[in-house]
Amino acid sequence: MHDSQGHWPLFLRTGGKLPGAVFNQTTLALDAALAGQGIALACRAFVAGDLKAGRLVQVAEESMIKEPSYFLVRKRSSLPRAQRDAVWDWCVDRLSLAGV
Length: 100
Hints:
The structure is a single chain. The protein is mainly α. It has helices at residues 8-12, 26-34, 44-53, 81-95. The two termini are 24 Å apart. InterPro entries: LysR-type_TF_proteobact-type, LysR_subst-bd.
């Protein structure tokens, strides 16, 4: 299954159009994979919880890092420091891939 990122040709080291359903959002491709409709290619951060819970399985040992990378960013804020840091810490904890 393909999403709008179009990483399958790079992952498979092939060119041209590949068969399979095409979704305009990664989450839709992942929902289809969760429903047993095929194999999706996704960022580990998007599927870490489903992998850990056994709802999804990694079907290939190979992985790839595609630039540009994603970064957790925030705007300089005038929110009180404790509130801002609590949200930031939650995001960092939630998106951490340690132990996955």
